[in-house]
């Protein structure tokens, strides 16, 4: 399958060099281990979010069922959306950012290793804030985009929305901290010769996502601050009695929310741009255009938010402008689809599981993209708004797009993470059940929506033509549950029993495949010098890139003499033995995150308990946060 | 070009970290942070402006208000029919806030001098130092001055907030109160963080003395401080000066 030699260091021996024990995980500042923490946490949240979906589909399988109450159903759809967006797709992408970006650009870690650990712990705190309440029947219940005034105290008096507001606020801190870190890492830590236009596309798409994060998250931060103040301190931001604008929240939320959509999809686009060339044995078609279209999507992503609000009556001018910008953003996205198809065209395709998921993304995202263009037109959107047609659309882009891309990425990069392959047989079952299950779940929703079935109803009467479509969707969801279980088995089993993978598990061309699997703590024993976009192919398989421009045109002809060194280990060694300075493990970032968690808990208590206790807890949490921050900033990194 | 790069020595860096741009990581991160902060304040200012003139009760920022009748007027004389004890004056006190604005803007000058003092510490100096040299070369003085001016601004803000509350405007009163206090309060929080940051630098300076190598520490703090200043120029213009 590949020409790469088997590793001379067995995975078991490599593993014995990795630190172990729970304390080593709490104190780790290694980007690969932080990435692994993100991965495991997000997969756990994926199970929770998936079960929430399964419960909803069980409830909706037949008309007039009473498996869950209407109130609990509200919690289910709110938490399913919130979980999948903020606790599954974003952190799964973050797992890849953490693991891959330093490896792809030839760096030994991220720019701020401790800030990176802090991002993870804050994410976990926010995740717990959002997830735990459902076990006590007080989960957020106003939809994942929490429209105010519905979410203000008079209409949502319970703790439910308090958890939601604070959970999202905490997660925002995590995302912002991570984004500053990765922007700096990508700008400043590229290996010699790794120009911007030689960066792997995954790193490029991540780079665009980081800018979306730092520009979009402040907006929802402010929207949430207003909501928090309205709920706790009786301000009037969303109070209709005080003549507040009922659309203020919607505007602020969607100015964040639409870039958020691209925050969710661009990392998957990046992964697929690594997968397709590898299994087609061809460089990515139109690299430059891929980069430019990614940037274009990022820019236009800020100018389309009001297409989520066509039904509120903004007037013809606003509707027209946002319809046009929305149609415009279809162009760079379509360009990407064509480039992926052209990448495969004439290639020697290998249908591995990763490749199947990659192609699955291209096909499924196209369907979701086309239905997106359908409701970019306001007259058409008025028919579809708040129906299952919209649900079908965004699941095709987020499940068919993001999740499929991420699954592809997991199969592709599993050997790099663990030194072993995942089972292709189980992978095959996973892919096909997932693919059929996904289409069976979401395709009928187009029809149910067109027949007028509204979103977010907990049950329905028969005789409206919705029964069959709902049953199909529920059967499809059962298939998705089975396929996810197969994935879980494969993921866990292969860790110990998978076939041993060489450094370059798939014959890929980028830097992360030049180092041992799993990589040593210092990643690169020697920082490589990069002379092209697929340095490993220049070295090992020059025929793949022969005659195909894969570098900036003014570059020299690549010869093996200045290709990157490929590290075949004979024995694993430590950074210390090589004289490479490594960051010292520290628990301070985790303690700082704990301080934030305690601080917000105190604030939460303000409304239900003794105010003095609440204030004491909040102040204590903030003091812990500030103390840990000072201790962290005044102690040396290495 | 590629060959030139290829023959550069590489491998584990000995002292300072090699970076692609030659800039320190922290410098890039602070610029990214400032970019993000622009969106934070843009959201707050936009909300303030969107809610301008929408409040259904007073006090109002620039208008006279009759509490009994709810009448609003540009001039006090126009509320002649209102009982004098029911008249509420325009809440914003532009002369007083102009003073605090002046202090905050001058603090940026002190910040520049603090940075220059640290940056130029290793420059060869004349044998006899004049008083001017001593003053300009004292990073402690200028860091302290910057922090003091920041604290003065905060003092003015505390005075402003208390007097507004006495005149009947709280964060709960109306849309103006909610958006005004949240916007200026967020800015004030940023100034507070800046003052704490400056005091931390000052403490380091007293403890071990800031040297040229610490220029970056002062530089990133200065970038933050100037940004907070610039934001205040926008707030002062849009909230206080423009009717």
Shape of chain A: globular
CATH class of chain B: Mainly Alpha
Termini separation of chain B (Å)? Answer: 58 Å
Structural class of chain A: mainly alpha
Radius of gyration of chain A: 25 Å
Oligomer: heterodimer
E-strand count of chain B: 3
Query: Could you give the count of β-strands of chain A?
Result: 0
Query: What can be said about the biggest beta sheet of chain B?
Result: 3 strands, antiparallel
User: From N to C, what is the helix and strand string of chain A?
Assistant: HHHHHHHHHHHHHHHHHHHH
What overall form of chain B do the CA principal axes indicate?
elongated
- Uncertain spans of chain A, ≥5 residues at pLDDT below 50? 1-5, 552-562
Strand order of the largest sheet of chain B: 2-1-3
CATH H-level superfamily of chain B:
Cytochrome c oxidase, subunit III, four-helix bundle
What does this structure look like?
In chain A, helix 5 packs antiparallel against helix 6 (about 160-190), helix 5 packs parallel to helix 19 and helix 7 (about 200-235) runs antiparallel to helix 8 (about 250-280). In chain A, about 60% of the residues are buried. Chain A has about 650 residues and is an all-alpha fold. Chain A is globular, with a radius of gyration of 25 Å. Chain A has helices spanning about 10-15, 20-25, 30-60, 70-105, 115-130, 160-190, 200-235, 250-280, 285-300, 315-345, 355-375, 380-385, 390-420, 425-450, 465-495, 535-540, 540-545, 575-580, 590-605, 610-635. The two termini of chain A are about 40 Å apart. Chain A is built from 20 helices and no strands. With about 240 residues, chain B is mainly alpha-helical. Chain B has a single domain (about 25-55, about 90-240), classed as Four Helix Bundle (Hemerythrin (Met), subunit A) (Up-down Bundle). Helices cover about 65% and strands about 5% of the residues of chain B. Chain B is built from 7 helices and 3 strands. Chain B has helices at about 1-5, 25-50, 95-120, 130-135, 140-165, 175-210, 215-240, and strands spanning about 65, 70-75, 85-90. The longest helix of chain B has about 35 residues, at about 175-210. Chain B starts with a helix and ends with a helix. In chain B, about 35% of the residues are buried. Classes of the chains: A mainly alpha (about 650), B mainly alpha (about 240). At the A-B interface, helix 6, helix 7 and helix 8 of A face helix 1, helix 2 and helix 6 of B.
């Amino acid at each position: 399958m590949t020409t790469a030699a088997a590793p001379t260091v067995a995975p078991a021996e490599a593993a014995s060099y990795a630190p172990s024990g729970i304390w080593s995980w709490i104190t780790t500042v290694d980007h690969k281990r932080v990435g692994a923490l993100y991965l495991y946490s997000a997969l756990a949240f994926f199970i929770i979010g998936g079960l929430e979906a399964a419960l909803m589909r069980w409830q909706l399988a037949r008309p007039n069922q009473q498996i869950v109450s209407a109130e609990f159903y509200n919690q289910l759809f709110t938490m399913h959306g919130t979980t999948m967006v903020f606790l599954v797709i974003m952190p799964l992408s973050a797992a890849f950012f953490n693991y891959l970006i330093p490896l792809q650009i030839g760096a030994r870690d991220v720019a701020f290793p401790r800030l990176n650990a802090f991002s993870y712990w804050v994410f976990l705190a926010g995740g717990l804030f959002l997830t735990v309440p459902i076990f006590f029947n007080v989960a957020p219940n106003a939809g994942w985009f929490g429209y105010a005034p519905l979410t203000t105290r008079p209409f949502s008096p319970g703790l439910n929305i308090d958890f939601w507001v604070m959970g999202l606020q905490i997660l925002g801190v995590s995302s912002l901290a991570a984004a500053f870190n990765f922007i700096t890492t990508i700008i400043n830590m590229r290996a010699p010769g790794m120009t911007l236009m030689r960066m792997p596309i995954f790193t490029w798409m991540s780079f665009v996502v980081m800018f979306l994060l730092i520009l979009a998250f402040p907006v929802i931060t402010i929207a949430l601050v207003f909501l928090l103040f309205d709920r706790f301190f009786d301000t009037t931001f969303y109070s209709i009695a005080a003549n507040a604008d009922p659309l203020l929240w919607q505007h602020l939320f969607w100015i964040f929310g639409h870039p958020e959509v691209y925050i969710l999809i661009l990392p998957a686009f990046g992964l697929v741009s690594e997968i397709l060339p590898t299994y087609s044995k061809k460089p990515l078609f139109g690299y430059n255009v891929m980069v430019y279209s990614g940037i274009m999507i990022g820019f236009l992503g800020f100018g389309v938010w009001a297409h989520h609000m066509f039904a509120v009556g903004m007037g013809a001018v606003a509707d027209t402008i946002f319809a046009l910008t929305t149609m415009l953003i279809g162009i760079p996205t379509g360009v990407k689809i064509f480039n992926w198809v052209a990448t495969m065209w004439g290639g020697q395709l290998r249908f591995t599981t990763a490749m199947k998921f990659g192609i699955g993304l291209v096909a499924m995202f196209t369907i979701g993209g086309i239905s997106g263009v359908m409701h970019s037109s306001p007259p058409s959107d008025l028919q579809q708004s708040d129906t299952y047609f919209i649900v079908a659309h965004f699941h095709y882009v987020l499940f068919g797009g993001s999740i499929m891309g991420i699954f592809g990425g997991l199969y592709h990069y599993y050997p790099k993470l663990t030194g072993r392959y995942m089972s292709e047989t189980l992978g095959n079952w996973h892919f096909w059940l997932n693919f059929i299950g996904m289409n069976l779940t979401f395709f009928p929703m187009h029809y149910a929506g067109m027949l007028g079935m509204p979103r977010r109803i907990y049950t329905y009467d028969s005789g409206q033509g919705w029964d069959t479509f709902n049953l199909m969707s529920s059967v499809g969801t059962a298939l998705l549950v089975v396929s996810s279980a197969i994935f879980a088995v494969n993921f866990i089993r292969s860790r110990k029993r998978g076939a041993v993978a060489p450094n370059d598990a798939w014959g890929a061309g980028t830097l992360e495949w030049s180092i041992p699997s799993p990589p040593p703590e210092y990643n690169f024993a020697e920082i490589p010098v990069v002379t092209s976009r697929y340095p490993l192919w220049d070295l090992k398989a020059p025929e793949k890139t022969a005659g195909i421009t894969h570098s900036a045109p003014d570059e020299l002809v690549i010869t093996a003499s200045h290709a990157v060194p490929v590290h075949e280990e004979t024995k694993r060694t430590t950074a210390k033995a090589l004289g490479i300075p490594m960051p010292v493990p520290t628990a301070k970032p985790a303690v700082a995150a704990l301080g934030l968690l305690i601080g917000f808990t105190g604030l939460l208590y303000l409304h239900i308990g003794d105010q003095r206790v609440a204030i004491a807890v909040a102040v204590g949490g903030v003091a812990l946060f500030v103390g840990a921050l000072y201790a962290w900033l005044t102690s040396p990194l290495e | 070009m590629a060959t030139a790069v290829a023959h550069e020595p590489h491998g584990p860096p000995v002292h300072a970290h090699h970076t692609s741009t030659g800039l320190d990581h922290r410098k890039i991160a602070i610029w990214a942070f400032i970019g993000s902060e622009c969106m934070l304040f843009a959201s707050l200012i936009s909300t303030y402006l969107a809610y301008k003139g929408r409040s259904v009760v007073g006090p109002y920022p620039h208008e006279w208000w009759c509490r009994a009748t709810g009448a609003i007027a540009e001039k006090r004389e126009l509320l002649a029919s209102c009982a004098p004890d029911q008249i509420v004056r325009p809440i914003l006190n532009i002369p007083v806030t102009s003073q605090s604005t002046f202090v905050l803007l001058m603090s940026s000058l002190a910040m520049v001098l603090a940075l220059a003092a640290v940056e130029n510490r290793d420059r060869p100096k004349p044998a006899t130092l004049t008083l001017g040299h001593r003053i300009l070369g004292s990073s402690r003085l200028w860091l302290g001055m910057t922090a003091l001016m920041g604290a003065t601004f905060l003092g003015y803000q505390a005075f402003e907030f208390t007097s507004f509350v006495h005149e009947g405007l709280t964060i709960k009163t109306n849309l103006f109160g909610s958006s005004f206090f949240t916007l200026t309060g967020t800015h004030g929080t940023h100034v507070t963080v800046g003052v704490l940051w400056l005091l931390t630098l000052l403490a380091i300076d007293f403890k071990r003395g800031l040297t040229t190598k610490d220029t970056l520490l002062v530089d990133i703090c200065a970038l933050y401080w100037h940004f907070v200043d610039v934001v205040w120029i926008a707030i002062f213009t849009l909230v206080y000066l423009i009717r």
